[in-house]
Amino acid sequence: MNSLLIKAYAKLNLYLKILKKRKDNYHDLITIFERINLYDELIFKKRKDSNITIKTNINELSGKRNLVYKAINLLRKDLNINYGLDVEIKKSIPLASGLGGGSSDCAVTLLALNRIWNLNLKFKDLLSYAKRLGADVSFFLYNCPFAIGRNRGDNIKPFFIKSKFWHILILPKFRIPTSFIYKRLDKSNSPQLTNKKDNVKIILQGLKQKNITLLEENLFNHLEPVSFNYYPLLKRIKDKLNKLGFKKILLSGSGPAMFGFVSSRKEGEKLCEQLKNQRDFKVLLVRTI
Q1: I need a surface site. Which of 44, 57, 126, 227 has the fewest CB within 10 A?
Q2: What is the reported pLDDT for 89?
Q3: Catalytic sites, residue numbers
Q4: Fold assignment, 166-287
Q5: Does this model's pTM top 0.90?
């Protein structure tokens, strides 16, 4: 195999509860991931020499400043190999949006290298590399629409159901560094950030039954109050959406992307039409995949 094209899908966090800070400066947490059909495209081409080139439509990701390069470099050093590769990244998932684009790109890079370089690594080996590269990378190795993430979010339990959901996805026109929000969370002693029931089982039940009302009542993101505090535009956008009739709009990860459930594609298309040409954000219609 000399070339390979793989789609790297985005994720939503339907539930995100922070439990405690770890000694390695990460956080123990519990989250529920949903994979959605917004994706980057990555093209991998084997080289005859040992050079690594990365081209992308986002200039700041070129060269060594991305998780794709880190994944390539890690495997080459760890396995003592010197294979070359050309990588083209066509980004559609916004940077620093809370949708896991970088982690997803990293995960498909591990899968691609295993195939294109004939490394014959087992899934458990790829998972070990994923955990070394980032907390969300592990989820994207699993071919599953939903999963529970524990520990740093990298202890994954896939949740396979037939239900598919439509979402309106709100993409504010700015970025939020994840590390910034977690540092502010550590300094917060708000009861709102510590006394939340664990509703994971209820959400899983709602997913299985395709009960949107039950899901909306139990969606939760520990990071939302912190992100809203430092980025008040997010709260104003959410208030605007609430006035349009959304019962529940939730931040994904540390944001700024937000999402809500819609009952059908038709309803979602109608809302997207209502919200087009916004100054502060753009809107997409996405679904589970």
Answers
A1: 57
A2: 96
A3: 11, 136
A4: Alpha-Beta Plaits (3.30.70)
A5: yes
